[in-house]
Amino acid sequence: MEIKSVGVVGAGQMGNGIAHVMALAGYDVRLNDISKDALDSAVALIQKNLDRQVSRGKIEEGARDAAMARIQTTLDLGDIAGTDLVIEAATEREEVKHKIFEAIVPNLADHTILTSNTSSISITRLASRTDRPEKFMGFHFMNPVPVMQLVELIRGIATDQDTYQSCLGVVESLGKTAASAEDFPAFIVNRILMPMINEAVYTLYEGVGNVNSIDQSMKLGANHPMGPLELADFIGLDTCLAIMNVLHDGLADTKYRPCPLLTKYVEAGWLGRKTQRGFYDYRGETPVPTR
Ligand SMILES: CC(=O)CC(=O)SCCNC(=O)CCNC(=O)[C@H](O)C(C)(C)COP(=O)(O)OP(=O)(O)OC[C@H]1O[C@@H](n2cnc3c(N)ncnc32)[C@H](O)[C@@H]1OP(=O)(O)O
Ligand SMILES: NC(=O)C1=CN([C@@H]2O[C@H](COP(=O)(O)OP(=O)(O)OC[C@H]3O[C@@H](n4cnc5c(N)ncnc54)[C@H](OP(=O)(O)O)[C@@H]3O)[C@@H](O)[C@H]2O)C=CC1
């Protein structure tokens, strides 16, 4: 099926990046959120990131302006029901995602493919609560979306081949690379990455190192572009904890036990960059470690 329009639900850090790359690739984008502020911030951030791409000579001004013109925002979920492909990118909480799919299903066009950008939650379970499990997939972008090359494509138990091929075609049209993952908790990237981040938090919790020494060790000692605590702040500590809980519950193995210190940061509302405080405090000129 040819996909021309894309509906994105959730205008947070992933939703804005998804809208950005889709519009740049020529898709008509409708971006939805429950918060007008989130929609306004997303549009401002997309403009800023496109401007930066222009100033670095990556894209032409005309391409930037055409991309911006292709993005419409809406607070009404019904407005995205007629698009060819819906990508849900709201908060990583299963009940939030179920509610979104339940609300959108009655208005959906017959041909619309439903997908979720979830980092960890069962695609089969999300699909089973819709009217179209065969047209449902995991469409998992990496953060920051405009920069990262990979998209994980996750088939639920009922996903049909046409749906997979259509999604694969979209990934290729973005100039990105798809990796196929089976539908088990946290798929491939987060099954490997998140236990490492959780272990870094345990390393901090047990006093083996402090925030600086842990991040510096992994940057200079393992050539990671960001230290694991800096990366956790970048992803969002609420999202990291949610993924660890899905791994812990879904695989029933104590090796996935979320670190109590990670839980404490989330309970404090210190969610990382998006709330200006996490393992680092971002309120000043340069980030300052909080431990
Ligand atoms: C949780 C999940 O479910 C799955 C996940 O996403 S896991 C997280 C996966 N992501 C990572 O691991 C990211 C690790 N970090 C990195 O790769 C790098 O630090 C980084 C690409 C984010 C920044 O790289 P850097 O060299 O420090 O910074 P910088 O030189 O400023 O930026 C590199 C490029 O990224 C762009 N960029 C950086 N941050 C950006 C952002 N938030 N949005 C858009 N573009 C961004 C810059 O514009 C620049 O683009 P050009 O090369 O076109 O000029
Ligand atoms: N952060 C990351 O590095 C990555 C995250 N993901 C996944 O992407 C999804 C989004 O994550 P991320 O962008 O980081 O999260 P954010 O917290 O940045 O954004 C989530 C957005 O969804 C909004 N939202 C919440 N409920 C609804 C709803 N019912 N309808 C519409 N919008 C809603 C939130 O609004 P409000 O703030 O008002 O609640 C917020 O604007 C998650 O499933 C996450 O696991 C995937 C890859 C990487």
UniProtKB/TrEMBL annotation:
Q: Does the keyword Lipoprotein apply?
A: no
- Quick one: which residues bind NAD(+)? G10, A11, G12, Q13, M14, G15, D33, E92, K97, S119, N143, K274
Q: What's the EC number here? A: 1.1.1.157
- For the 3-hydroxyacyl-CoA dehydrogenase NAD binding domain, which residue ranges apply? 6-183
Keyword list, A-Z: NAD, Oxidoreductase
What are the boundaries of the signal sequence?
none
Recorded superkingdom: Bacteria
Record InterPro entries: 3-OHacyl-CoA_DH (IPR022694), 3-OHacyl-CoA_DH_CS (IPR006180), 3-OHacyl-CoA_DH_NAD-bd (IPR006176), 3HC_DH_C (IPR006108), 6-PGluconate_DH-like_C_sf (IPR008927), 6PGD_dom2 (IPR013328), NAD(P)-bd_dom_sf (IPR036291)
Q: Is Iron one of the keywords UniProt gives this record?
A: no
Give GO BP annotations, semicolon-separated.
fatty acid metabolic process
Q: Which GO terms describe its molecular function?
A: 3-hydroxybutyryl-CoA dehydrogenase activity; NAD+ binding
Matches recorded under Pfam families? 3HCDH, 3HCDH_N
| Parts of the chain that traverse the membrane | none
Where is each 3-hydroxyacyl-CoA dehydrogenase C-terminal domain found? 187-282
Q: Point out the annotated site residues (description: Important for catalytic activity).
A: H140
Name the protein family. Belongs to the 3-hydroxyacyl-CoA dehydrogenase family.
Q: Which NCBIfam families match?
A: PRK05808.1 (NF004474), PRK07530.1 (NF005715)
Name of the featured protein: Putative 3-hydroxybutyryl-CoA dehydrogenase
> What organism, scientifically named, is this protein from?
Pelagimonas phthalicica
